[in-house]
Amino acid sequence: MIAGPSTTDTATAGVPRSQQLPPVSGPRVPPGPNLPEIPPTAPRARAGEPLPSLAELLNRPVNPNQLPPEIMTSTVPVASADSVRVALLVPLSGPASKVGQAMLNAAQLALFQFADDRFELLPHDTGGTVDGALAAAQLAIGDGAKLIIGPLLSASVQAVGPIARAANVPVVGFSSDRNAAGDGVYVMGFLPAAQTERVLGYAISRGLVRFGLLAPDNAYGAAVLQAMQDVTLRQGVQVTRARLYDPNAEDYTDVVREISDFDARKQELERQIAELKQRDDEISKKTLERLEQLQTAGDLPFDALMVADGGKRLQQLAALLPFFDVDPAVVQILGTGQWDVPGLGNEPALVGAWYAAPDPRARVDFVKEYTATFGETPPRLATIAYDAAALAAVLGQGEDGPNYTQQALASPNGYWGRDGIFRLMPSGITERGLAVLEITRKSSRVIDPAPESFQPRIN
C-alpha cells in the first residue's frame, strides 16, 4: 500500500491538491518542452479561457531526491479513517513483470504529482495470469478499494469485470480489446480500430482509393480489417485485397507473393518481352531494354498497403515487399500504433510509411521524469498507467469523498494526458486524439497533428 505524499512536499508546493485533471478546451497550443512553467500561485482559468493541460501542470521536472520515500521504497503508511483506496493490478512476477513494474513506477509518479495524503495505492501482483488477476481483484475489493486500475491483459480484464461489478467497483483496465469494456469496465489501451480509421482517413484525404491489407489472423487483425471495411464503405473507396496470415508462421513469403499478385504480373512482363522480341523497330528495342530491367509489369491491386503488425513479423513482411516488387515509391505503406517504436527507419521499405499514434511530443516530459527517477527508459505502455492513476487521484479528492461514477470517469470533454487528449466513453472504450506520423531514416515526424479537442459526444 502506497500513500499519497504530504501536502507540504516541496516539489509540489503551490499546486492545489484539489486540482482536477482539467477538461479539454480549445483552441489551444499543444504543450511542449518550451512551454513556461505554471507559477506556484497560478489561479484557475477564468470563464472562457483555456484550461491548463495535465502536461502543463506536470511540466516541472521531477527531482528524484525530492520524491517521498514511499515511491522509492514502497513503505506502507498507516491507513487513515477517511483514506481513498485504489488498487493497481499489474504483473509484478512472471514473463510480463518488467512491464508491470514499469506501470507501477509510472502510477507512483502520478500519485506523487496529484494525490493528497488520503490517497492510498494498493499494488497487487497478477502474475500475468487470469487466475492471478481474479485473486488480486478479490483481495483489492476485500481491502476496500473504490476503484481498480488494471489488469493488463484482455482476458484478465474480462475475468475481473463480473466480480468488480458485483461489488460496485469500477475497473479501468489497460487492455486495447473493446470486447472487454462496458458496464463499469473501461479499457485505456490504444484501440487498433481507431488507429486504422485515423491513418486511413488521412490517406483517403491524400487521394488514395484502393487499399490492401496484410494482418495477422487473430482478434487484432480482425479488428483492423473491420475498421478498414467500415471506413472505405463510408468514404466510397475500396479494400481491393486483404490477406490474413498465421501469426506463428516462420515464413511469410507466400502471403506477400499472393497479395502483390506477383506471379500474374511476372507472367505479364514475360508476355510483353516475348512480343517485343519479335519486332524489329527501334521503339520496340528500346522498350525491350527497359522491360528487361523490371521484375513485373502491370499495376498492383492497391494504391496503399496496410501492414497491421509489429516487431519481428513487421520486419520480415517489410523486407519481402521490394522482393515481390511492391515499390514503396509507388505504393503508400500504412501502419497502426504497433509501429510506435524507435528504429523502424532501419528497414528501407518502411521509410516514408505512415501510421497513426499519439503525438510523441506529448510524452517527452514524462519520459524524462521517469528516466531521471528510475534510471531507465519507460516502456510504451507506462503512460497509460500514469494517466489512469492521475485520473484516480484527482477524482478521489471530492469534498464528499471519491467520485468514481460513470459521470465523473467518462467526462464528455475529456482530459489532457501524457499521450495527448483522451476521454473514457460510457461504452467503456477510450477515445484518443491521434496524429499521423511518417517514418524517416532516423525516427519519425508528425505530418498531420493530433486534434486538440473532441467533437461533441453522441452517447
Quick overview of this protein structure:
35% of the residues lie in helices and 16% in strands. It has two domains: 258 residues, Rossmann fold, CATH 3.40.50.2300; 128 residues, 3-Layer(aba) Sandwich (Rossmann fold), CATH 3.40.50.2300.
Identify the strand order in the major beta sheet. 8-7-9-10-11-15-16
- Total helical elements: 14
User: What is the CATH topology classification name of the largest domain?
Assistant: Rossmann fold
Distance between the termini: 37 Å
Structural class label: alpha/beta
What is the name of the CATH superfamily of the largest domain? Response regulator
Q: Could you name the CATH class of the largest domain?
A: Alpha Beta
What is the H/E string?
A: EHHEHEHEHEEHEHEHHHEHEEHHHEEEEE
Overall mean pLDDT stands at 82
- The helix fraction, in percent, is 25-40%
| Coarse shape | elongated
Query: Strand count, sense and closure of the main sheet?
Result: 7 strands, mixed
